UniProtKB/TrEMBL annotation:
Organism listed in the record: Thioploca ingrica
Family: Belongs to the short-chain dehydrogenases/reductases (SDR) family. FabI subfamily.
InterPro entries documented for this protein: Enoyl-ACP_Rdtase_NADH, NAD(P)-bd_dom_sf, SDR_fam
Catalysis performed (reactions): a 2,3-saturated acyl-[ACP] + NAD(+) = a (2E)-enoyl-[ACP] + NADH + H(+)
Catalytic residue list: Y147, Y157
Top class in the EC scheme: oxidoreductase
Binding site residues for substrate: A95
Membrane-spanning ranges: none
Pathway(s) this gene product operates in, as recorded in its UniProt entry: Lipid metabolism; fatty acid biosynthesis
Keyword Phosphoprotein: no
EC number: 1.3.1.9
PANTHER family: ENOYL-[ACYL-CARRIER-PROTEIN] REDUCTASE (PTHR43159), ENOYL-[ACYL-CARRIER-PROTEIN] REDUCTASE [NADH], CHLOROPLASTIC (PTHR43159:SF2)
Taxonomic classification: Bacteria, Pseudomonadati, Pseudomonadota, Gammaproteobacteria, Thiotrichales
Protein name per UniProt: Enoyl-[acyl-carrier-protein] reductase [NADH]
Length: 256
């Protein structure tokens, strides 16, 4: 029996078989969790349905995390299939592409800042608030994905770095808010991985090469490795870990 047997997990942010959310879904499925998925829009519906089926899941629901109505609707629907929820995975980020080119102040706009923070940080708290009643009394866990650009000025990461800094603070405040209910909140700070979202970041190839040359393990991380850590963090094996940012980056962040 896997260490997530009996757990119900909602996965938000699956876009392709390269998505970090896919690595997480596969690890959680392997460890015995029941899964439900959301998809951002109709373009992704069929693909997400197929991938869900590979994890023995038939629960796929539309959700643009910029919409409170769509977030509410996810939990209304989920309650029809499940009597409770143990895990929410938030694997979503967005900033207008132009803001991820050149240096931060070259393209910064008030609207770009608002969108990046809304979709990449606020949406995590919005999911927690909407899912809170379903998670009551179940030792539930929430997990989001962040990146080193939250703490260091990484070339081209720009406004997304600000949004990830907000997300990391969000993890701590959410952990404090939900701790009295036994609900844990953590983030994985993943090393760079070639996904659809990463394709939006200028010069991404150089980031991968740099990590490969300089990380203690001299290689890049895989979605499977992020998935395994996510499964552990959302399981009862991690019952005293909350409010943490856990690095899954082949050790890159410790280097000078
Ligand atoms: O190097 C990387 N790939 C890293 C990613 C390193 C460290 C962290 N991360 C983070 C990302 O910032 C993000 O928070 O991991 C998370 C997942 O990213 P991913 O797996 O790299 O990217 P992807 O497979 O593209 O999934 C993210 C998806 C979107 O894909 P696209 O590329 O179409 O934007 O987030 C979804 C969307 O499907 N998404 C939304 N979902 C609901 N509502 C929204 C939205 N408004 N916007 C984006």
């Amino acid at each position: 029996m896997g260490f997530l047997a009996g757990k119900n997990a909602l996965i938000v942010g699956l876009a392709s078989n390269r998505s970090i959310a896919w690595g997480i879904a596969q690890a959680m499925h392997r460890e015995g969790a029941q899964l439900a998925f959301t998809y951002q829009n109709d373009k992704l519906k069929e693909r997400v349905e197929k991938m869900a089926a590979e994890c023995d899941s038939s629960i796929t629901l539309p959700c643009d995390v910029g919409s409170d109505e769509q977030i509410e609707a996810v939990f209304t629907e989920l309650k029809k299939s499940w009597d409770g929820l143990d895990i929410i995975i938030h694997s979503v980020a967005f900033a207008p592409k132009v803001e991820l080119e050149g240096t931060f102040l070259a393209h910064a706009t008030r609207e770009g800042f608002r969108i990046a923070h809304d979709i990449s940080s606020y949406s995590f708290s919005a999911l927690a608030m909407a899912g809170r009643s379903m998670m009551a009394g179940r030792q539930a866990a929430l997990l989001t994905l962040t990146y080193l650009g939250a703490e260091r000025a990484v070339p081209h990461y720009n406004v997304m770095g600000l949004a990830k800094a907000s997300l990391e603070a969000n993890v701590r405040y959410m952990a404090y808010s939900l701790g009295t209910e036994g609900i844990r909140v953590n983030a994985i700070s993943a090393g760079p991985i070639r996904t659809l979202a990463a394709a939006g970041i200028a010069d991404f190839r150089n980031m991968l090469d740099y990590v490969e040359r300089n990380a203690p393990l001299r290689r890049n991380v895989t979605i499977e490795e992020v998935g395994n850590t996510a499964a552990f963090l959302c399981s009862d094996l991690a019952s005293a870990i909350t409010g943490e940012i856990i690095y899954v980056d082949c050790g890159f962040h410790i280097t000078a």
